[in-house]
Amino acid sequence: MDLDGSNARIANYFDIIAGTSTGGLITAMLATPSLSNAKQPCYEAKDIVPFYLKHCPHIFTCRTGFFCWLWKIVHIIKLIIGPKYNGKYLHKIINDLLGETRVKETLTNVVIPTYDVKCVKPTIFSTFKARSSSLMDARLADVCIGTSAAPTILPAHYFETVDYHTGASRSFNIIDGGLVANNPTLVAISEITEQIRLRSKEFPETKPLDYHRYLVISLGTGLPEQDIKFDALHVAKWGFFEWLGRHFTMPLLLMFLHASSDMTDSHVANLFKSIGCSDQLLRIQDHNIPIASVSADLTTEKNLQGLVKIGENLLQRPLSKDDCKINLEPIPKDSCTLTYADLLTRFAKLLSDERKFRLQNIELDARVLANHET
User: Fold this and answer.
1) Coil, helix or strand for 62?
2) Which residue numbers delimit the PNPLA domain (predicted)?
3) Of the residues 137, 142, 176, 265, which is catalytic?
4) pLDDT tens-digit profile of 302-350?
5) Tens-place pLDDT, residues 81-91
6) Which of 198, 268, 212 is nearest to 18 (CA)?
7) Does the active-site annotation cover 34?
8) How far apart are alpha carbons 217 and 347 in whole angstroms?
């Protein structure tokens, strides 16, 4: 906004925005056209946090005081016989927010991973796929409801798409995309690489493996602090229920999702380092979130405000050695004084310059075309 004015929006600066689970909903919010202005998204980046602060307590109902323990017992029983929450409130706000908007109608390309429990395989929804196949052009609302349907927490989502020209239809039975790609960075890179290989109209003259043209910003949702991780002596004694629920978390699911995310971090970082482009990758992740704050559905005002504070503090905190290894190559001598806010400022300038360059080329092409026609 400081660089390009009050009308600047995230969707104007990225060829592709990818998100998994709640990240899929954020992706849709940043890329879905507004009803009042089709050239602008329905939500600005600054509106995301207030949206979650307002709606999370209703999506994941939480009781305090006298009824707290009774409420926990009820949820334990519900976990045994079905999902912890029915998802009705979440489904309503997503449908109200996104309406009938389809995947191919987004302001910029989006990629949202899901997992189809009937086909037993990943299903990746993207603007690219939606343009080439009407059966993949689902309502964004359905995709977001599906990708956020975390097992045991929210119910799986069923919907169908129809090709009205041929009469063909396709059914989807999907759950949380985190089972496929908790960190969707590689999925997004793969989608763009495929479009470049196909020489699509958006990437007609770029080489498929020319990663020097890629600029990647990857935002994590945080990892628990180191001292709560369990050693083998403790884990060896765990039974079924301890693996599924301990210290406010589900250790088995937590380990699975974090392992998937960490592997993606490693692959992408090594890829960019191998071609000397580490300065074109920015990974933001907090590795020391208090364990109680990691819980997916702890929506007390204290915890939600605590998460906001964690994010604000992360921006101003000097980069650790591990952060420097991922984001800086070679590592400058003054790296200990750099913060994520500094890196984001740098990337914002790169994105702004690239957008201005593209707009100038569009204007130049328009002039050439006009002169040719006259």
Assistant:
1) coil
2) 1-189
3) 176
4) 889 998 999 999 999 888 776 676 676 655 555 557 899 999 999 999 9
5) 678 888 999 99
6) 268
7) no
8) 8
